[in-house]
Amino acid sequence: MLFVDNGGNNDARLNLALEEHVLRSRMADDDLLLFYVNAPAIIIGRNQNTIEEINSEVVDARGIRVVRRVSGGGAVYHDLGNLNFSFMTRDVNARFNRYDLFNKPVVEVLRELGVPAEIGGRNDILADGRKISGNAQFATAGKMFSHGTLLLDSNLDDVTAALRPKPGKVESKGVKSIRSRVANISEFLREPITVRELRDRILERIFGTRDRALVPSLALNPADWHAARDLVERRYGSWGWNYGENPQSNVQRVQRFPAGEIDVRLDVQGGRIAHVRFFGDFMGRTEVRELEARLEGLPYDREAIVAVLSDLDVGQYFGDIAIDDVLALLAP
User: Which of 126, 163, 240, 241 could form a cystine bridge with 120, CB 3.0-4.6 A?
Assistant: First the structure.
């Protein structure tokens, strides 16, 4: 494994762009590890409807940046009290959706610090049943990353005020609010530590040393930073990517499954599916836009939709969700 140094950058747009660029263009045979810390930002899941996930008034008033990531899952809050980690690998088939494999050294470090950390839920790290880390994954061209947050000493008031979780998600967690189900790692520590110290402890766990001169690294060059900044211009800094259009629809069905929520919106015109969008915090390996394109133009009847779905592995798009469940949403 090689360590990738982001140079202390705190811009969420640039850090997400750098992460994607390194995965797509700089991976060779070695696994990679990237850390980054962002100024206050809400990071939206790939398939979420941004405007429905955030409190726009709070976001604007507090100067919180909103950026969409390429991985699925739900919206998370980043600030300077939160450490983000990203493990990159070519071992997609054996490790996609295996958050335990990536998070093992992180959990071990937290436990050494006195935090009762454990893997929980579908993609979280918990302490005393409260979320201290949310994780998601992205795969492309035989490569993937598994990235996550570590809420060390974040502003949880901003978390509560800026995010608007859907009622079904909160109820499925058995709690009444975001604030009651998240916690800072600092609440469980025997002694306070900084974000940098937490990062260095994870580095030591993985590489056996905190001495940066002894940690094997992938050096970034000016061309890498140019490519990342270009990606910010084309994607992570654009309104179209981060917010997107709220699509016209005349049919909407929503259901929450253990693998995440699916919110399907169809625009049916003249008995055919003119447009379809799948929103939600589901986490599949394949871009759901591919499925949407297969459905658009079909007659809006169960037989036609069954014919398309039966040739596909819907789990590639939505995770552990059965074809009958997807069909019930599209054509009950």
Answer: 126
The CA-atom distances, in angstroms, between 197 and each of 37, 146, 193 are: 13, 22, 6
Alpha-carbon torsion, ordered 282, 285, 290, 291, to 10 deg: -50
On whether the 2-242 domain is CATH 3.40.50.300, my answer is: no
Domain locations in the chain as residue ranges: 2-242, 251-330
Identify each DSSP E strand in the chain by its residue range.
2-4, 32-36, 41-44, 65-68, 76-78, 82-89, 117-120, 124-127, 130-140, 143-151, 251-257, 260-269, 272-279
- pLDDT of residue 265 exceeding 60: yes
For 234, the token pair is 């084309």
Question: pLDDT per residue over 71-127, tens digit each?
Answer: 999 999 999 999 999 999 998 888 898 999 999 999 999 999 999 999 998 899 999
The answer to whether the beta carbons of residues 143 and 92 sit under 8 Å apart is yes
Residues of the chain with pLDDT > 70, as a percent, come to: 95
pTM: 0.91
**Contacting residues for 59 by C-beta, under 8 A, at least 6 apart:** 42, 66, 162
291: left (phi over 0), alpha (psi -120 to 50) or beta: alpha
Which pair of tokens denotes residue 95? 């490790």
Fold of 251-330: Enolase-like; domain 1 (3.30.390)
Cα separation values, 331 from 289, 291, 325, Å:
19, 15, 10
